[in-house]
Amino acid sequence: MEIKITTRHILIALAVVAWIIFVGVCIEAGGFITNTIYTMVFNAEGARNFWQGNDLSQLYNFDRVYFLVETSIMSIVAIMRAIIFYLIIKMLQENKLNMAQPFNKDLVRLILNIAYLALGIGLFSSWGAKHAAWFVQQGIKMPDIEHLRLGGADVWLFMGVTLIVIAQIFKRGIEIQTENELTV
What distance in Å separates the CA atoms of residue 77 and residue 30, rounded to the nearest whole number? Predict the structure, then answer.
């Protein structure tokens, strides 16, 4: 007996993985936002044990506005990552992937949206990492940017540009597909 793995099986597996990642990123984004609000409004000690044990108390004591800016950047990056996985899940759930005609406007729109979000994540991550480096230069002890979820800005930027190129290829595919349909 031969087990045949089809594209449909792979898409179902990818949907499950996307759901798991989406839930994890949503929890992370919610954790950043909740801890920021809790620390700013209710208890300054929340900065000592920020999300996943990161100690941002020195930053908070240095300047509350810088603390708010840095945690807001972390939240924005997490929210943008969640939106990427939401878009992927939405595309897979609505069955807009037509394997008979893979070049369609919905897929191009999805790829472009993910590309712009990836570029945004890259820019915000770079901004947050530079802020963290500046804080360290000021003598403030900061967690590593990987722990702040701000690492890999260059990878996100590379991914965004690559996806824009792929979207342009898909646009050309749509044009060729349309020309062929008009010829017949």
Answer: 12
* Residue 122 host element (H or E): helix 105-137
* 67-126 residue pLDDT tens: 999 999 999 999 999 999 999 999 888 877 776 777 788 889 999 999 999 999 999 999
The answer to whether the beta carbons of residues 128 and 77 sit under 8 Å apart is: yes
Residues 47 and 3: their CA atoms lie apart, in Å, by 53
**Whole-prediction pTM value?**
0.87
Angstrom distance (rounded) from CA 107 to CA 165: 14
> Sign of torsion, CA 19 25 28 32?
negative
Which residue, 160, 158, 140, is CA-closest to 148?
140
Task: Report the pLDDT value the prediction gives residue 51, as an integer from 0 to 100.
Answer: 83
135 Cβ contact list (under 8 Å, min separation 6): 59, 62, 66, 70, 142
Query: How do residues 164-173 score in pLDDT, each as one tens digit?
Result: 999 999 899 8
Residues 141, 131: Cα–Cα separation, whole Å: 13
